[in-house]
Design brief:
This protein is of the alpha/beta class. It has two domains: 245 residues, Rossmann fold (3-Layer(aba) Sandwich); 61 residues. It has ten helices and twelve strands. α5 packs parallel to α6.
């Protein structure tokens, strides 16, 4: 369990590069989104929900056919060797991964469609499963890039007038999760000049007709479709936002997020040892049980906790240690 000391927290520094950032890139098929991610982003592991990387030499990619594949990969990402090899995890395309997550939840609950369970209960389970896995990747210290296709949606403004807007292909629940996570929503579009030459751009600002956005509000609304141009614009926006205090900007991502999770059997062994150190009286037993109930939400035997509840047991151990120090 990671130690927390709020008196030893250092001010956050924002990196100029894209390592450790969270991005949603979407646009028309074959406009170059996958190639951009695979060849220009740092240390990429490409999770491929569709075959779009076979013409890209050198990319490290894994074909994904079910949600359990993703869960297995996330477990492997929690290792020093993986963190040395990879820094950016690319989901290509994100709507396919949302579908795989939905199918996983349906299989868990023995239904063919998520809507079969009344009162929208499985939608909540699906949203939680989808968001918790993505959050785990971020807490391991990786950046994430979601690649998506575009679709045209018919929406209404405040006056009830209908108009068309471009947005990623993604169900509303998954889109809400992704949109809340990412630092950038970048639409990749193309324009033709008077000579018929095709130029591609990142669009960074939300308009009535394009869904886009950035946590760095000073970015130009349109940027040439290249890593160098994007980094240059991010740097300018950051320098503007810190109001001259450039010490808050770093040339690279400096975050260290490490959670040293020990084997579950060690956790349970320590819990049992601490439990037995208390005086065997009804009063002390009641105090111990109050700690367990606080974290588990109900009175249970701590020895019956499962591996999925390890974090709860670790928290109980910390409180038991503090309580044990009061024993005279």
């Amino acid at each position: 369990m990671a130690d927390i000391d709020i008196l030893n927290i250092q001010p956050n520094k924002v990196s100029k590069d894209l390592k450790g950032k969270y991005i949603l890139i979407y646009g028309a098929p074959k406009i170059g989104k996958t190639t951009f991610c695979a060849t220009q982003l740092p240390n990429v592991l490409l999770l491929a929900g569709e075959v779009g990387y076979h013409a890209i030499p050198g990319v490290r990619a894994v074909d994904i056919t079910k949600w359990n594949d993703v869960k297995k990969i996330v477990k492997q990402l929690d290792s020093p060797q993986a963190k040395e090899m990879y820094s950016t995890i690319v989901f290509d395309t994100i709507d396919i991964f949302a579908q795989l997550c939905e199918e996983y939840v349906c299989q868990q609950n023995g239904v063919a469609d998520i809507s079969e369970v009344p009162f929208g209960k499985l939608y909540k389970v699906y949203t939680k499963e989808f968001s918790s896995l993505l959050r785990k990747i971020t807490m391991l210290g990786y950046g994430i890039v979601f690649v998506g296709h575009q679709e045209i949606k018919l929406v209404k403004n405040d006056k009830g007038e209908e108009y068309e807007t471009l947005q990623p292909v993604l169900d509303k629940r998954a889109l809400k999760v992704v949109n809340a996570l990412v630092d950038f929503v970048l639409y990749v579009g193309q324009e033709w000049d008077e000579n018929g030459n095709n130029n591609r751009f990142f669009y960074t600002r939300n308009t009535p007709f394009i869904m886009a956005g950035s946590r760095f509000g000073e970015m130009a609304p349109k940027i040439p479709f290249s890593y160098e141009a994007l980094i240059s614009e991010i740097t300018k926006a950051m320098e503007s936002s810190v109001k001259g205090d450039l010490t808050m900007i770093s040339d690279k991502d400096e975050r260290i997020i490490q959670e040293n999770k020990r084997p579950f059997r060690e956790t349970m062994q320590e819990a049992g040892e601490i439990w037995m150190k208390f005086p065997k009286t009804p009063d002390w037993n009641e105090k111990k049980m109050k700690i367990v109930e606080e974290y588990f939400g109900q009175p249970i035997k701590l020895s019956t906790a499962t591996e999925s509840q390890q974090d709860l047991v670790e928290s109980v151990i910390e409180d038991l240690k503090n309580l044990l120090s009061t024993v005279k």
